Amino acid sequence: MIGGAKTRLALRLLRAFTLRRILNSARLRVCSLVRRKVVRNMPESLSVEPASVCNLHCPECTLGNGRLQRPERLMDMKTFENVLVPLSPWLVSCQFFLQGEPTLNPNLCQMIASAHRRRIFTTVSTNGQTLTPELCSNLVSSGLDRLIVSVDGTTQEVYEKYRVGGSLQAAIDGIDNMVAARKALNRHNPLIEVQFIVFRHNERQISQIRQLTRQWGADRVVLKTAQIENPAHAAELLPQNPKYSRYRIDTNGKASIKRHYNSNCFRLRSTMVVTSNGDVAACCYDKNCQHNLGNVNQNHPAEIWLGEKANSLRHLVWKLKDGVEMCQNCGG
Which of 275, 279, 286, 302 has an alpha carbon 20 to 30 Å from 253's alpha carbon atom? Predict the structure, then answer.
């Protein structure tokens, strides 16, 4: 990352820390350290799903491969405000992605602006296909802090092996449009992060994506390990360099997660995940919201977060360890 960009990002993150948020974040870390079973702190992070629809068909994505069992829809502004406003005194960050393509929601910039006014650090992750000059200008004006653009190949042939239906040139044009919008508005935000998910078919392009990121004017590139939904495809998809894989392959060709299971899951203590219709999922790995904790259009989000159902689920995860399905693919 360019040094100036890193400094600006840190300063924008620091802007989010009020005394109440600092105390809440400190408390949740102490409670996690001593493994307190009942969560009493509020979440420090919010992850919302602006859209459970997408314009691509990525094969290892729950939505892209047709395994999403939830209705496809766009989150409305009322649903977003129902969770953001009550939790905003404690929230340090808000992520606008789960399943689907966030930029398909016409209310996205309004949502970001609402969080920005409350001094909450905001992030959007996109496939970059719809980053028009107008949208980029609106994203900059909304106060967006970080934009993640997925570019998983440096040639169209390699790119489309995972981003099925996508155009590499469209993603590059989107980055160009965002760089131009920042310059036109004389703003440093958002930080533009190129995300490169490493597969076997693209791992030889890692050095190229680093060079291209600088040429495009983006601020940094982040290499991400792939999440594999179908273990039968693991051997053909995972990179040869184990450094870029979250899995190990045994002698029978079966994939298993590398990390040691941590039953004291920090995500379950720190981040509320809300789907496009307002349902609260257990975490970002609960793709189909099988552990539905409640709906923010029907209950106050604090009641859901601190309620018996949420705490019972946390106990279940802590007790069963990786016996809970959503935990078996968790890389962190």
Answer: 286
- What span, in angstroms and rounded, lies between the C-alpha atoms of 218 and 328? 34
Rounded distance between C-alpha atoms, residue 276 and residue 111, angstroms: 13
| Mean of per-residue pLDDT scores for the chain | 91
CB atoms within 10 A of CB 164: 14
| pLDDT digit string, tens, across residues 217-249 | 999 999 999 888 776 677 788 898 988 988 887
58-87 pLDDT, tens per residue? 998 889 888 899 999 999 999 999 999 999
pLDDT of residue 3: 57
Q: What sign does the CA torsion over 215, 216, 219, 221 have?
A: negative
Q: Which residues contact 45 (CB under 8 A, 6 or more apart)?
A: 91, 92, 93, 94, 95, 270, 271, 272
Crossing angle of helices 168-184 and 206-216, rounded to 10°: 30
Per-residue pLDDT tens digits for 128-159: 999 999 999 999 999 999 999 999 999 999 99
Task: Report d(CA 145, CA 190) in Å as an integer.
Answer: 4
Report the C-alpha dihedral over residues 12, 16, 19, 22, rounded to 10 degrees.
-90
| 327 close to 314: Cβ distance less than 8 angstroms | no
Calpha distance 308→127 (Å, rounded): 37
pLDDT tens per residue, range 92-127: 999 999 999 999 999 999 999 999 999 999 999 999
Please give the torsion angle defined by the CA atoms of residues 7, 19, 279 and 145, in that order, rounded to the nearest 10 degrees: -20
The answer on pLDDT for 297 being more than 50 is yes
Report the C-alpha gap between 230 and 87 in whole angstroms: 36
Asked whether the beta carbons of 37 and 308 are under 8 A apart, the reply is no
Report how far residue 274's alpha carbon sits from residue 181's, in angstroms, rounded to the nearest whole number.
30
pTM for the predicted model, two decimal places: 0.94
Strand 271-274 relative to strand 280-281: parallel, antiparallel, unpaired? antiparallel
Rounded to 5 degrees, φ, ψ at 77 are: -65, -35
Who's near 96: CB < 8 A, 6+ residues apart? 48, 50, 102, 108, 111, 112, 122, 123, 124, 125
- Nearest 5 degrees, angle CA 55-CA 58-CA 63? 70
